Structure formats: C-alpha cells, structure tokens
Amino acid sequence: MSPRPRAEAREDAILLATLELLAQIGYGAMSMDAVAARARASKATIYRRWSGKAELVVAAVERHTRDQAGDHDSGPDTADLRTDLTLVLQDMRDRLVGQSAQLVLGLMTAMRDDAELARAVRSRLIDGKRESFAPVLRRACERGDAPGAVDHELLAEVSSAILFSRVFVTGESLDDGVIAHLVDDVLLPLVHRHDRSDSSDRSDR
Predict the structure, then answer these.
(1) What is the pLDDT of residues 141-185, one digit of tens each?
(2) What PROSITE patterns does the record tag this protein with (predicted)?
(3) How far apart, in whole angstroms, are the C-alpha atoms of residue 190 and residue 185?
(4) What angle, rounded to 10 degrees, do the helices at 53-69 and 101-113 form?
(5) Which residue from 20, 36, 13 is spatially nearest to 106, judged by alpha carbons?
(6) Domain spans in the chain, listed from the N-terminal domain onward
(7) What is the DSSP string of 138-162?
(8) Which end of the chain, N or C, is more open, meaning fewer C-beta atoms within 10 Å of its C-beta?
(9) Residue 194, by phi and psi: left (phi above 0), alpha (psi -120 to 50) or beta?
C-alpha cells in the first residue's frame, strides 16, 4: 500500500472513531485520547491533521454529511428555477435524514457551552449551508427568472429551519410532495417578492 492510501485510511479511521464516540458518549465526554485509542492511531497523528477536538468533530460531521448525500457545491443546473430549488431542498433533506439525531442534537447542545466548537460549526457547516442556494439563484438571475435582489441566505435559513423541525422535532413527513409544497408556497414567493413589490410601486404611480 502506498503512503497516500495508507494516510487516507488512517484519516477515515480517525473520523469514524470520532463520529462513533460523539454518538455514544457526547462531545463533552469525548477526548482525543479516546479517539486515538478507538482509531488505533497516535495522538501525534491526530494533532498533525487537526488542531483540536472542535476541528476534528467538525471534520468528521462534514465527511459524514458528504458521504450520506454527495457533494454538490455548484448546485443543480437544470435551467429551471423551480426544479433547481426542488433539487436543493431534496439534497438538504437527504443530508439531514442521513444524520444521527443523537449526534446532531448532542452537537447543538455542546455548542452552547463550548465557544470554540460553536465557532467551528458556524464557520464550516452553517455558513456553508447558507450558500447552498447562491449558485442556483445567481444562474436564475442571469436567465431573467429571478430578480437580482434575492436574499439567498434567507432562503437557506427558512429551509433549514423547516427541514430540521420536521426531521428532528415533529417527525412529520418530508416526502417529495412536501418538498414541492415548500418550493411553491414558501421559496418561490420569497424569490419573487421583490417582483410583486416593484409591480405595486409602478401601479401606484
């Protein structure tokens, strides 16, 4: 085995051990010693790659999320805004459904008491999610299918809140019919609210 695949296998083992410990004992009780023991790696190896527990945990959750639903940084591009928004929401749903509820809720609880973890999660996970609609809306604006003043962060925040609530709180359905309802009755009206405002202003003149 060449050095690079061996290094990748070691990294995979460390990230998997981190996820397992997070789910089993939580962030607060997890230690770098425990991760090293479970992954059969030295602490020096872990610290060469990650500066501390918070960064390691975020990297593990990032990897898990990407493995569950793939990585689509540029977003879908079907040349149809409704279809693209639907695909973005479906991807967000699939990523959430693939997560361990115990892991996610435990991470959120730990963020209240650990400023370093909170900063890492917000910069690496939450801020990235806020950009999930940006490429789709940018292309829609270029095609003339959306106004230029769309707040993509608002769309991401509203979508995340609804999806998170249904997956982890209420347990209500998130099938494709619900996704279509969210696109048609929540996201598209938000996208086109500036169009309606401009039309109203013109009619008042």
Answers:
(1) 999 999 888 888 899 999 999 998 998 889 999 999 999 999 999
(2) HTH_TETR_1 (PS01081), HTH_TETR_2 (PS50977)
(3) 9
(4) 150
(5) 20
(6) 3-204
(7) HHHHHHTSS-TT--HHHHHHHHHHH
(8) C
(9) alpha
Are 22 and 107 in contact by the 8 Å Cβ rule? The answer is yes
The token duo for 78 is: 């079907």
Return the residue matching tokens 């425990």.
Answer: 34
- CA-CA distance, 31 to 57, in Å (whole number)? 11
Question: Could you report the per-residue pLDDT of 114-151, keeping only the tens digit for each?
Answer: 888 888 888 777 776 777 889 999 999 999 999 888 88
How does DSSP assign 86-125, residue by residue? HHHHHHHHHHHHTS-HHHHHHHHHHHHH-HHHHHHHIIII
Residues in the chain: 205
Rounded to whole angstroms, the Cα distance separating 36 from 154 reads 40
Q: Which amino acid is it at 174?
A: L
Task: Output the pTM of the full model.
Answer: 0.72
Q: Is 2 exposed, middle or buried (0-12, 13-18, 19+ CB in 10 A)?
A: exposed
The architecture of the domain spanning 3-204 is Orthogonal Bundle (1.10)
CA angle at residue 92 from 39 to 18, to 5 degrees? 10
